[in-house]
């Protein structure tokens, strides 16, 4: 014996429970109709050959309807929320947006509303009662979409975090000392979704700059700014796009860009970049903003082994050892310029802004001090290195001496080209 139609004075709660009972009796049919409508209306979900996917779609529709029943029956059942969070996460992992899922939810809502309208007509419900049922449906649709969006966002955040970890691991494999094996690096690059470039450059960042680094870097730049010695790996560093990145984005910070090298030599690029940062901090390499190692290769080469360099300076510049700084420095500048200008006194005078007679007088003094050593090819090579180191050390001493003065001073050293003296003074 069927239930009598509802009257216009029946409480809303009773009407909702009656609607729930009606829907529950037909739920298998409603689920099947909704699944067919979703599969025919949304190509992404039409997978007739994939039985497992069809069962997943069926379970999702069923959970949505049971969730709606819970609202009608005023039960505190939120199982459907966990299901739709998982569905949203699945959409993200399959590389889709939420558009298809939201369209499927709307199709399900229309199918449910169609059933509710039939129930309302059979029960002669008032427009107000029909409106209450429609509100319940669309409110549930919003809840389903919200749960799916939460799952989607959580899955994306987890994937981004995992990808960041993989990229940091790849970065440290690339610059490891001793170097990591080619197979390990290739596998890490694949896991990090990072195409291996033909050439790359390591960028060393001064630790004090970490907090002010730009929050967003291009996706192909590997970064670990929070490391004790922060570093970036920039692929194809000589391309116009990457040069713009380094000039425009990093110019405000104290960073050094290592030379472009093959991936297997990334550790060398980083070591040279960190060395350049150190020499910049000591005043040996001057300038503000980005330090380009390729512009300072001579100084970097000279300062690779400072103990050995000190021994070379002591040996090759021994004729100047007893002199005061005021005597020694003009002779160092003159002799270095003479060696660099093919022993042309007039060129030395022009370069140091001195009278040619002053240069010749100094050269005669140097000839008495050094004798044949300044004319011997092999000795001249070591002598030039020693003179470069002498000038660079002088710049560093000047910088240290001026640190405690109240007025700011420009950097004492300026290297204008690879192998150029750090300081040039005219005496």
From TrEMBL:
All residue ranges annotated as the PucR C-terminal helix-turn-helix domain in the record: 331-389
InterPro entries (alphabetical): CdaR-like_regulators, PucR-like_N, PucR_C-HTH_dom, PucR_C-HTH_sf
Positions of the PucR-like N-terminal domain: 19-175
Region (Disordered): 396-427
Biased segments, Basic and acidic residues type: 396-407
Alphabetized PANTHER family for the sequence: CARBOHYDRATE DIACID REGULATOR, DNA-BINDING TRANSCRIPTIONAL ACTIVATOR ADER
Record's protein name: Helix-turn-helix domain-containing protein
Organism for this UniProt entry: Actinoplanes sandaracinus
């Amino acid at each position: 014996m069927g239930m009598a139609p509802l009257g216009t004075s029946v409480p809303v709660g009773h009407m909702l429970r009656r609607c729930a009972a009606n829907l529950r009796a037909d739920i298998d049919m409603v689920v099947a109709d909704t699944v067919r409508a979703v599969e025919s209306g949304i190509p992404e979900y039409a997978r007739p050959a994939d039985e497992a996917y069809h069962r997943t779609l069926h379970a999702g529709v069923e959970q949505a309807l049971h969730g709606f029943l819970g609202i009608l029956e005023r039960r505190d059942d939120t199982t459907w929320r966990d299901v739709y969070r998982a569905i949203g996460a699945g959409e993200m992992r399959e590389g889709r947006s939420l558009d298809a899922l939201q369209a499927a939810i709307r199709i399900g809502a229309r199918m449910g509303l169609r059933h509710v309208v039939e129930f309302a007509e059979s029960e002669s419900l008032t427009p107000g009662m029909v409106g209450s049922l429609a509100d319940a449906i669309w409110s549930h649709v919003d809840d389903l979409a919200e749960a799916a969006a939460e799952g989607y966002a959580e899955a994306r955040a987890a994937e981004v975090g995992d990808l960041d970890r993989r990229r940091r691991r790849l970065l440290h494999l690339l610059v490891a000392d001793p170097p990591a094996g080619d197979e390990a690096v290739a596998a890490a690059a694949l896991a990090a979704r990072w195409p291996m470039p033909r050439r790359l450059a390591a960028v060393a960042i001064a630790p004090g700059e970490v907090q002010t680094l730009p929050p967003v870097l291009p996706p192909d730049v590997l970064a670990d700014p929070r490391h004790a010695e922060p570093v970036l790996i920039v692929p194809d560093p000589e391309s116009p796009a990457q040069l713009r990145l380094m000039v425009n984005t990093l110019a405000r910070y104290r960073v050094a860009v290592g030379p472009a090298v093959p991936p297997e030599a990334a550790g060398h690029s980083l070591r040279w970049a960190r060395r350049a940062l150190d020499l910049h901090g000591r005043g040996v390499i001057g300038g503000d903003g980005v330090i380009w190692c390729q512009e300072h290769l001579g100084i970097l080469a000279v300062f690779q082994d400072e103990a050995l360099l000190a021994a070379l300076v002591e040996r090759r510049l021994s004729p100047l050892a007893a002199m005061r700084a005021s005597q020694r420095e003009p002779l160092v500048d003159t002799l270095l310029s003479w060696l660099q200008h093919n022993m042309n006194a007039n060129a030395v005078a022009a370069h140091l802004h001195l009278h040619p007679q002053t240069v010749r007088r100094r050269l005669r003094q140097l000839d008495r001090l050094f004798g044949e050593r300044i004319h011997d090819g092999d000795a001249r090579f070591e002598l030039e290195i020693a003179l470069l180191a002498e000038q660079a050390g002088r710049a560093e001493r000047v910088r240290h001496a001026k640190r405690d003065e109240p007025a700011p001073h420009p950097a004492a050293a300026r290297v204008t080209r690879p192998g150029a003296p750090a300081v040039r003074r005219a005496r």
